[in-house]
Amino acid sequence: MTDKNIAVTEKGKKEALSREETRAPERYTVPVVDILEGVDGLSMFIDMPGVAREDMTINLEQGILTIEGRIKTAKPAEDIYREFTLANFYRQFRIPEGIDQEKVTASYANGVLNLLLPRAETAKPRRIEITAGE
């Protein structure tokens, strides 16, 4: 089945137009993300089921975190009916300035990507002791 747009001409004739060339041929899904903030930094849990670790790309450049996961599926037969389709994942986040970008770590297990974004030492809260004044 091809993707077509239908346009109505002046005389009421229908004309089939092909897909816009500016549209990307791939479809992306926005992964579901939980972000937790602790004293030491941020923890991100990103659901990306069906993505192999080697098919995942994580980039952190100029304060923008980009997460991309590609799904490789082997189709043993032609689809007759489908209610669920796996799609590639893509999401971007702006990272706060107080994060130490050099120390970000990632782990992946059971379809969940876990990113740890530690605070920079200068951004960590600290308790200031009060001394008696003379």
In what order do the strands lie side by side in the largest sheet?
3-8-7-6
Order of helices and strands: EEEEEEEEEE
Number of helical regions: 0
Mean pLDDT: 80
Number of strands: 10
Percent of residues in beta strands?
35-45%
Shape: elongated
**Sheet having the most strands:** 4 strands, mixed
Task: Classify the helix fraction into a percent range.
Answer: under 10%
* Low-pLDDT regions: 1-23
Q: What radius of gyration results from the CA coordinates?
A: 23 Å
Distance between the termini: 85 Å
What structural class should be given to the helix and strand makeup? mainly beta
Write the layout of secondary structure elements.
Blueprint: E1 4-8, E2 14-18, E3 28-29, E4 33-38, E5 41-47, E6 56-61, E7 64-69, E8 88-94, E9 105-109, E10 112-118
Parallel strand pairs: 3-8
Antiparallel strand pairs: 1-2, 4-5, 5-10, 6-7, 7-8, 9-10
Structural description of this entry:
With 134 residues, the protein is an all-beta fold. Helices cover 0% and strands 42% of the residues. It is built from no helices and 10 strands. The strands form 3 sheets. It has a 4-stranded mixed beta sheet with strand order 3-8-7-6, with no helix packed on it. A 4-stranded antiparallel beta sheet has the order 4-5-10-9, with no helix packed on it. Strand 4 (33-38) and strand 5 form a beta hairpin. The radius of gyration is 23 Å and the shape is elongated. Mean pLDDT is 80; it is low at 1-23.
